[in-house]
Amino acid sequence: MAEAGAIITKELLGLLKLAAEQGYIDRLRTLFKKKHRILVLGCTGVGKTELLKSLTTLTPEVIDHLNRTEFAERHRIKIRNEPFIFVDTPGQYRSRRTRAIREEITRDITGILNVVCYGYHENKVDRKNAFTPAGEVDEAFLEQKRKTEIDDAQSWASLLGAPEFADWLITVVTKADLWWNRYDEVIGHYSTGPYHQSLGDVRALNPVVLEYCSVFHKFYGQGSLSGAFDDSDRLRTRVHLLQSLLASIGKGGLNG
């Protein structure tokens, strides 16, 4: 009897070893681990999808401005073995985004990733309006898009209502390679200025504002870069965002 028990134990240990070698045990751990559900918001063309790709790919391919997110998409991403579900909402179809937000707030939302870009929006219809006759980026265009961001923020902030729907809010200002030479102006706009004020009651979440750049890319392939933001800056902002996401769920930074 004891000998039969020893044989069974040996076989079980062998199966467990094989399962571990083939990654099944890690998959089971991930399956039962709490998923951190993040709502990703922002206007069309600010770079939401590209940002999410950059969390797993150091240098993602540039997404063409004709290719926009049309329906809410869920991206399952592991950051230092912590499972996140990022719900990428469509920026150009407000009714679809509204439906996605209402669906998600019935679940347990961990936090909100709010993506903005200081007016450097790229989409299907605006290229002809984004530049002056001399070929420079039109400041009036950028200002109009910043107003669109404010209108957009007021829309989703009113939907979320009371801040208890989420634990935190991170505003990520993408395309830093384009606006880096105006750093204080840009960060001030989102941290204390008009945009911050537009968040209403959601300000109770004490939003954190982070600069970011998924990939170097001229505005519509034409406007020049700031010339003040290099690859080391891009990598640094990426690490900072990853650390902030881990810190937001109580896991410390990448070295925590």
Mind summarizing the main beta sheet? Answer: 6 strands, mixed
Oligomer: single chain
Mean pLDDT: 83
| Beta-strand percent range | 5-15%
Number of helices: 9
Name the helix and strand elements from N-terminus to C-terminus, one letter apiece. HHEHEEHEHEHHHEH
Looking across the biggest beta sheet, what order are the strands in? 2-3-1-4-5-6
Shape: globular
Which class best fits the helix and strand makeup?
Answer: alpha/beta
Task: Write down how many β-strands occur, each being a DSSP E stretch of 2 or more residues.
Answer: 6
- The first-to-last residue Cα distance is 49 Å
Radius of gyration: 22 Å
Query: Unreliable segments (pLDDT under 50, ≥5 consecutive)?
Result: 27-33, 64-68
Question: Level of helix content?
Answer: 40-55%
Q: Main traits of this protein?
A:
alpha/beta; 6-stranded mixed sheet
Chain-wise SSE layout:
Blueprint: H1 2-21, H2 24-32, E1 36-41, H3 48-54, E2 73-79, E3 82-88, H4 94-104, E4 111-116, H5 139-160, E5 168-173, H6 176-179, H7 183-191, H8 194-198, E6 208-211, H9 231-248
Parallel strand pairs: 1-3, 1-4, 4-5, 5-6
Antiparallel strand pairs: 2-3
Explain this structure:
The chain has 256 residues and is an alpha/beta fold. It is built from nine helices and six strands; from the N terminus they run ααβαββαβαβαααβα. A hairpin with a 2-residue loop joins β2 and β3. The radius of gyration is 22 Å and the shape is globular.
